[in-house]
């Protein structure tokens, strides 16, 4: 599948994979800052942003293959750093496990290694059905938006929240349903973490209620070569909510690889 993407800067490649149901627009502050020293490639994953949204279940493995296809299409054959937020992190893990030779480093932001509980998977299926019946992402947006940000961001920074609301609202019903069903079926990766040799930065907002700091800490501890950065004043969208702190941690990590 041909994905829409942004490709900025020159140097070692950093691929950034957005969360659900967002788009590459969530990385604008990282694209601006990191592209001064790196080549930043940020796709819209299938079903999101400007990429096609087929009626299908989007497994994390399939989305990882889309990213590999994009890199191949761009002639990027050297190992790259892949950063992913939440669903983007599930995809980054799938990519790292299937194609370890393509990975120079990982940034796992506000994400999880565990699978959905049966109840969470059932709820996703219910939401997928509701969104498909409505023909738009509305019900999901209202339920999910308050959980994405720190409470103070919701209260005091409406201009920060608005673009992510718009990105969510723009995601098609088929895109939402495809990703929800793919996430519901994703495997538990916790046992596999120890086989990931790539240096990894695990980053998490200190107020993330979707993938809380304790889970990030457990991921960092299970990986053979990881460091943890807790991003202050941020919820589930730490890179977007506090780009200064996230970019500082990311740049320090990226520079440590060269
Ligand atoms: C995301 O931000 O990508 C989602 O919260 C992931 C999920 O629903 O598991």
Summary keywords:
alpha/beta; 7-stranded mixed sheet; 47% helix
Secondary structure: elements and pairs:
Blueprint (H helix, E strand, L loop, with lengths): L4 E4 L4 E5 L10 H7 L4 E5 L16 H14 L6 E6 L1 H12 L4 E7 L8 H17 L3 H11 L2 H6 L1 H13 L2 H12 L15 E6 L7 H10 L3 E6 L6 H4 L1 H15 L1
Parallel strand pairs: 2-3, 2-4, 4-5, 5-6, 6-7
Antiparallel strand pairs: 1-3
Helix pairs in contact: 2-3, 4-8
Strand element count: 7
Q: What is the CATH topology descriptor?
A: Rossmann fold
The helix tally amounts to: 11
Share of helical residues: 40-55%
| Shape assignment | globular
Radius of gyration: 17 Å
Which ligands, by name, code or SMILES, are bound? D-malate
Strand order of the largest sheet: 1-3-2-4-5-6-7
- Following the backbone from N to C, one meets helices and strands in this order, namely EEHEHEHEHHHHHEHEHH
Overall structural domain count: 1
- How far from one another are the termini? 32 Å
Please indicate the percent range of residues in DSSP E strands (runs of 2 or more). 15-25%
Structural class, judged by helices and strands? alpha/beta
Quaternary organisation: single chain
CATH class: Alpha Beta
Largest sheet: 7 strands, mixed
**CATH level-4 homologous superfamily:** Alpha/Beta hydrolase fold, catalytic domain
Q: Give the mean pLDDT.
A: 98
Low-confidence runs: none
CATH architecture: 3-Layer(aba) Sandwich
